[in-house]
Amino acid sequence: MINVKVEVLEKESVQIYRMSTLDLQGNPFIWVSAYLIDGLLIDCGHHHAKDEFLKVLDIDEVELALLSHHHEDHFGACYDLINKHNIPVYATKETAFLIGMKLRLPPERKLVWGIPITPKVKLLENIKEIHTSKAKFEIIQTPGHCCNLISFFQKEKGLLFSTDAFIDSKQSVIFNWENATKMLETFKNLKTLNCKFLFLENGNLTTPSHLEKLIKYWTEIKTKSQDLYLKGFTSKQIVKQIFGRESILKKMTGGDMSRENLIRSLLNLAPLNIRYNRKKRA
Q1: Structurally, how many domains does the chain consist of?
Q2: CATH code where residue 241 lies
Q3: Which of 12-21, 174-183, 268-277 has the least mean pLDDT?
Q4: Alpha helix stretches (DSSP H) within the chain
Q5: 282 in a structural domain
């Protein structure tokens, strides 16, 4: 039996539904979040937590749902929302296509998030904005984590929902399909929006001043990496020079997440081993 924890928080008039699978000691692995604001549900969590999430979700307040991208920890409850609660779920053409491909997942992601039932989502016709009866949301293209990632800006309140657009500066790791250079450019583009608060994937809020610090930090990491690479250092050696050692997440994910991935991406080098493949069909 998979144990999960779902928390309901409220910040800046936003309902935050934070959820995680628990380890054997009852500690959360990784927090992922869904947001409800002015009738719009942004993302739907992961499969393992979907039942607990739907128990606490204020269904009557949801006019429609919109997916930020296709990864399994963002559309876990979509099928039930559509087929049991008659709530329309929208996605961009690219996201809908990738959900339908039924990508093969590494075992650790199956364990932490589960495999969602593939939903039949509605295509988002207007890729610049979406409306509910209460508000308008600008749709912002935020590539880096994946090419089809979008974020949502409620300009009147100054609230930006950036989901997976950010690199975790504490771990300093990325997946081997992520593009750190594009993520850095996304940071810079988000800064121009002059938002009040940014909502992150883990349910936390950050501010433009913190975004400025992130831009400075990752720009410095990129510059140091380039200098060391020109001196003949390998990507592994650069990791040791800058961070001291590799992250434990590299071993836990079979190399899918690592600091070396980050360095190679910032240097525009080819990614290392990728296990994220299309599922074979009979």
Answers
A1: 1
A2: 3.60.15.10
A3: 268-277
A4: 50-56, 78-83, 93-100, 107-113, 180-191, 208-230, 235-243, 249-252, 259-266
A5: no
